[in-house]
Amino acid sequence: MKMKATAILCIFAGILLLAACGNSAAAEEYAREQERIQLQQEHEAKEAEEARRLAAELEALERELEEARLEAERLEAELLEAERAIIRDEILAEARWLARGYFYEEALALLNEDQYLINDETKALEIEILQMIDNLVLFEDEIRHIFFHSLVLYPEHLFPNINIPTGGINEGFIFQREFIRMLPQLLERGYVLYSVHDIWSRDEYGNMQQHPIYLPPGKRPLILSIDDPTFHYGIGLANRMIIDEDGRLATEVITPERETIITHDGDIQLILNDFVREHPEFSFRGHRGIIAATGFMGIFGHDLLTEESIAEAVAVVEYLKNTGWLFANHSYTHNRVGFWGPNSNPNNIRRDVAQWRARIEPVVGPTNIFIAPFGFTLRGEGLQVVLDNGYDLYFNVDFRQPVTVYPTHVLAGRIEIGGYALVRWRDILNRDFFNVDEVMDAHRPPIISP
Ligand SMILES: [Zn+2]
């Protein structure tokens, strides 16, 4: 019994011991766990702080980025506005130029083309142009038509002795320096180069009609034409009209010293183009004048006998058309006897017109303008041939420049500006166009014709 009790006691003590031993290991484990947790918490706190720091840094960077973005936007807007200001200035200048040349609708359209460019300045110009349109007046006076031949470039060469009365070129032609002196006077007198197509056309019944002409107060239309651009006049006048290496209209001139030079003022077309570029108000909607082409000697110094020659002539024609020039039939033969003179034979007229249409029309294009050689006024069958070929604007020569509108065609006169007119039509020129004394050159011989 005692043995049994001792054994039980021993077992109990063992259990206690074991229990005590077990308790001590758990405590250690607990402490380690606590330390680990603390370390973990410390680590987490550090990480959280690091995260906060990074977040703050990120936020600062984002703020900086946003500021940079706003600055970039501001600069871009500024740049855009600067670009717009440049474009607006160009548009304002272009619109003013268009309005000066009577392109009112085009100027208004340009000012309103881009809504972002509209500002007080464009609105002010728009009002100014609308005012110009309001101020246009109906022109009710007579329509003037002046015509020229090619310009004399070297009068001293052509007329070595100005005391000898001289006909021909002296009577029919104008000197280059006279033409240059004439233009500002024509401008000052209110003349505006006007297209015959803007004056006369057919109405809905097929009858010829004259359109009302509206221009600013003090302005008046002027029809200008140039006859016989053959350029076969020899030294003293331009030798050829060409397109130069830079694609510009040019004149090839042979000087009295027999040197071939390229110039840009060797005939009326070039001088007038430059003048209109400077003074758009001298031209109604870009129009210049009419070039009355014959056939038998080609055109502008190009004989039209080879493909190359035709191509050169066509290039000149295209350039001129693009700068506001029209072309007219001035007959193929320019022959007075039996054709364009007192004993005119309708069969000759028929042949002449057919030749012009076959050889010259392919170069200058179709036209309804007929400028009669020698100003000869065809009647009867001969006139009918011309009308049947579609020429319903017929111009002769008459210093009073009358205009008659028939149902079938318009017959209108022109006044020649040359040495003869400077003397014989002096009063008319003084009254209507320019001061003859200021224009006429000192190097003009007397004329022969009565
Ligand atoms: Zn002629």
Overall description:
The protein has 450 residues and is of the alpha/beta class. The chain has 2 domains: 2-133, no CATH class; 141-439, Glycoside hydrolase/deacetylase (TIM Barrel, Alpha-Beta Barrel). The chain has helices spanning 2-100, 104-111, 120-135, 155-158, 169-172, 176-188, 268-278, 307-322, 346-359, 361-364, 380-388, 419-424, 426-432, 436-439, and strands spanning 137-138, 144-148, 151-152, 174-175, 191-193, 200-202, 208-210, 214-215, 220-227, 240-243, 249-254, 260-263, 290-293, 326-329, 369-371, 393-395, 403-405, 410-412, 415-416. It is elongated, with a radius of gyration of 46 Å. The N and C termini lie far apart (183 Å). 33% of the residues are buried. The structure holds zinc ion.
Summarize the structure.
It is built from 14 helices and 19 strands. It has 450 residues and is an alpha/beta fold.
In CATH, the topology of the largest domain is named TIM Barrel
Q: What small molecules does this complex bind?
A: zinc ion
The CATH homologous superfamily of the largest domain = Glycoside hydrolase/deacetylase
Low-confidence stretches: none
What fraction strand? 5-15%
